Amino acid sequence: MGQYRLLRIGEQIKQEISTMLLRHEIKDPRVSEFLTINRVEVTPDLAFAKIYVSSFMDQKSIERGVQGLQSAAGFIQSSIAKKLTIYRFPRFTFVADTSIREGYEMVQKLNALEKESDEIESAKTENKQDNN
Fold first, then answer.
1. Could you give the dihedral angle defined by the CA atoms of residues 19, 76, 65 and 107, in that order, rounded to the nearest 10 degrees?
2. Which of 49, 73, 86, 113 lies 20 to 30 Å from 4 when distance is taken between CA atoms?
3. What is this structure's pTM?
4. Residues whose CB is less than 8 angstroms from the CB of residue 43 and which lie 6 or more positions away in sequence, other chains included
């Protein structure tokens, strides 16, 4: 199957699950509307789809949400399968995605280093001016 078609199917699945989350169609109490579907990777034979889930909530809440989504995977699959017309519908595996949080933390560290570097530079400049 073409890579472009797999990407389109992944985007459709992502959109449908996001809509289900916003509409509170998944009744599991562990699933929050604050969960975000980052990306969906569909295998070329359409047997499996790995769905990456993240949120700005704490890690424990994300893990609970992923467990809730995994237990509701059958319901989610059947709901989406009714809307999409493909010859084989993939099984869903939900995975906690921490890349957004890790990226945010990395940016914070880089900003702190830049600020520290600027402070050292300004201290050196002041030192040179005081010596002259």
1. -50
2. 73
3. 0.77
4. 49, 90
